[in-house]
Amino acid sequence: MKMEYICGLWIIMRYHKILIIAGFLIIWTFVFYYFMLRNSIDFPLPENDYRRKMMFKKIENQVKQELKKSEKLTNAVLRYLKLNYPSEVSSNKRRESQTPQQKDQAPQLQLVGVVPLTDKEQQTVMGLVEPPEQEQNHLELPHVDATISHLKDGQPIIPILVLACNRVSIAKCLDNLIQYRPNAEQFPIIVSQDCGDEATRNVILSYEPQLTLVEQPDQSDIFVPPKEKKFKGYYKISRHYSWALNYTFSQGYEYVVIVEDDLNVAPDFYEYFLGTHHLLKQDPSLWCISAWNDNGKAKFIDASHPELLHRTDFFPGLGWMLTKSLWQELSVKWPKSFWDDWIRHPEQRKNRVCIRPEISRTRTFGKIGVSNGLFFDKYLRYIKLSEEFVPFTQLNLSYLLKDNYDNTFLKKVYTLPIVTYDELRRRLISKDGPVRIQYINREQYKRITKMLGLMDDFKSGVPRTAYHGIVSFFYETRRVYLAPNLNWKGYDLSWS
Fold first, then answer.
1. What residues make up the domain containing 166?
2. 218 is catalytic
3. Which one from 197, 302, 340, 492 is the annotated catalytic residue?
4. How confident is the model at residue 377 (pLDDT cuts 50, 70, 90)?
5. How many domains is the chain partitioned into structurally?
């Protein structure tokens, strides 16, 4: 009997100790942030009202996050006690429900010391708390007044969303965008800055009122699994994309064109998107309009046809348009990192395609980024930028709709003569006109593209610029189609 009494005392002391610790954490959180907000003399209050509001909003979110962590820890402790000492927890509840007279009659125990948890028990408790990587940065968007999404003539207002961080060279990008913008009312420029770099912010502000600057308010450190520490930059980029797109679409726009801060644009950049945006509404098989050609080096394009556009299964990015409905679909499952690879996966793409130009309407000038100058980044700088203005709004682009395009494109490609790379290189083809080079497997495709100098990689099994597995490019004076054989069964994820 004495031994049972001692064991019961030990369990109750431990239970009270855990609750005291949890209560201390909650009280500490309230006290610390209250005095920091009320009594901090050195707290920076920017002169700009918007920045002040954003900074207070950031601190408010931090307070909420700390409170949530304390609440989770308390709940975790209670769950731990219920799992391991159910009888003691239930008896404690019974004691709380007793009348004062009944409580006086119950045996009274005093807390005479603190019994530390064992390492195993500590791990069990902490395991019940959600890990940091599961905590999403669901920031409340600032209140925005109703925004006009269309002009009086019915044309849509298409904002240009520029994603910025710490490149003061963003000035090159903004100069281009402002120089070629035909109408500031129809194409408002919104620059969303992450990183909090003051020098970059000052450069952006120097362009007001020709653009609007918004700042991603969550500058807290981001949880990255230990094996992916070197990819932290990609996690921050993904978080920034999510916040910036939520902010922009919350204003009521139907379309957004995304531009990175290291891109130059062509003179007809705005005309290109204005002439193609309606295709996204007409054709449900389309999900983006891109200004980029991954194989857009000067030697691979037909410079005599700057108006030529293509369908592609590969998501190009680098200056692209999406609709509000697509963002509503993607935003609820937006990834924590590597968003561009994620968006190319079959679960997101769902066999939808993009429109891309023969000649790129964007070109990168950035030399430093999260990818640290990989081969692909170096390749990008050789992409040819269109210099001729094409009146896309006056062209009939119905040939890009799925039924029209497939009937013409596939029949044309598979009736062309088959040649080898060697015959092409040595100019042994007797007739002028387009030809087809056939590939059977991944190894053969990579070997041919390397010899030609084309991009040879795959993303989710899809080659860059491919449509139905067919990669179209220009070689000297003729169009060439690098195509799979006729019994092609679709993209193979194992090719990536």
1. 144-385
2. no
3. 340
4. low
5. 2
